Amino acid sequence: MTAKTRITRKNKKNILRVARVIRSKNSGPFELTLDIMFRDRRHFDLFREKKIITARKIARLYRIPESDVLKVVYFEPSQAIKITMKRKIPSGAPGDTDIYGAQQHVPLFDLSF
């Protein structure tokens, strides 16, 4: 690791410092919605302008095909990003470990910018 790499990593912020709410929930039995609500307008605008959250980034984070990320919407009225993706297993189907989809947001905690 070079000094330049260390500086770059050191200067990055974690999303938990700028998000007011990070949550997940079902969007029907076959889809999951992730919400990131920002503490202030400045960070919402930064994420939108720089396209910090993309389908590709979500796919890598969740280890799913990019085609399974159905939408990434920057929702201005609530200063939020809404991400809709396919569920790996339909809600309530055998093998489903989170029937409400309420515990699927945790990988977002690792996002840095």
Topology of this protein?
Layout: H1 3-11, E1 19-26, E2 31-38, H2 41-50, H3 55-62, E3 69-75, E4 80-86
Antiparallel strand pairs: 1-2, 2-4, 3-4
Molecular structure report:
The chain has about 110 residues and is an alpha+beta fold. Helix content is about 25%, strand content about 25%. The chain has 3 helices and 4 strands. A 4-stranded antiparallel β-sheet has the order 1-2-4-3.
List keywords for this structure.
4-stranded antiparallel sheet; 24% helix; 113 residues; 3 helices; alpha+beta; Alpha-Beta Plaits; globular
Strand order of the largest sheet: 1-2-4-3
What's the total count of β strands? 4
How many helices? The count is: 3
How many angstroms does the end-to-end distance come to? 19 Å
Structural Rg:
15 Å
The CATH C-level class name of one domain: Alpha Beta
> Helicity level, as a percent range?
10-25%
Largest β sheet strand count, sense and barrel closure: 4 strands, antiparallel
CATH architecture of one domain: 2-Layer Sandwich
Q: How confident overall, as mean pLDDT? A: 92
The stretches of 5 or more residues where confidence is low (pLDDT under 50) are 1-8
Query: In terms of structural class, how would the helical and strand content be classed?
Result: alpha+beta
CATH topology of one domain: Alpha-Beta Plaits
How would you sum up the global shape?
globular
| Beta strand % | 25-35%
Element-level helix/strand string: HEEHHEE
